[in-house]
Design goal:
305 residues; 51% helix; 8% strand; 5-stranded parallel β-sheet
Amino acid sequence: MKMNLYELTTENRNQASENIDMLSTIDMLKIINNEDKKVALAVEAVLPAIAQAVDCIVEAFQQGGRLIYCGAGTSGRLGILDASECPPTYGTSHEQVIALIAGGHAAIFQAVENAEDNQELAEEDVKKIHFNAKDVLVGIAASGRTTYVIAALGYAKKLHAKTIALTCNAGSEVTQVADIAIVPIVGAEVVTGSSRMKAGTAQKLVLNMLSTGAMIRTGKVYGNLMVNVETKNLKLVQRQIDIVMQACSCNQDRAIEALQECNGDCKIAIVIILTALSVDEARVALQQNNGFIRRVLSQQEINHG
């Protein structure tokens, strides 16, 4: 049974903003800013659940599974934003992290009437991407009561896949369906019920952690450098050169030379500069160490120590 809207924390009236329509612009913005300050603390309070979710996603990746986001409205769009940034940032395939939104592509730009209330649509969307037990489904719903998300999570559970709920309301329906519940309680919104605000910000912060944490744990970051970055434009070509320079403490000419030797593979370029390995040897070493540069360097130190 769905919780009534008035029972939801995200639907409560915020006493701090009850007269916000009477304030000057700067005072209005101060209230919004003060409320936003609470969001990071709400996320901090649920870090253990986020860590559990990251480890779950990493395990899925290691078994050839995928990370699937599912949401409606703002929640669905935030999932799309996070998923779409993974290929250029971390060199993932477009199939490794996928986002589903109630109403499909059209709903990215404008609301699709009743899509979030459609259980059959959720199951159809999940089936279309050939969702299976190796995958992880993250259901995103600020209210925690979105039918589309609940149905998708339920379908995933039937396949014995791991499920994660991201909501801003404790005890909501999605938390009861999922294996892991991430529930940052951000409190009432400045504009009553406008969950694109604090709730949306909290969801964005959590999604940042889920994808970034999983990419770091699967070897796509060396130090804090995005060594799997794709060079799709001139800015990213220069970023890749800068990454090699920073990782190897070398000059730009050496970084460019190394990248040219390995057809623009940032990881291989770093390994051949920091070790005595050839391009082919570096490629094999990285494959044997699941793409972790540090493991390759550690092995080389042992072999030549």
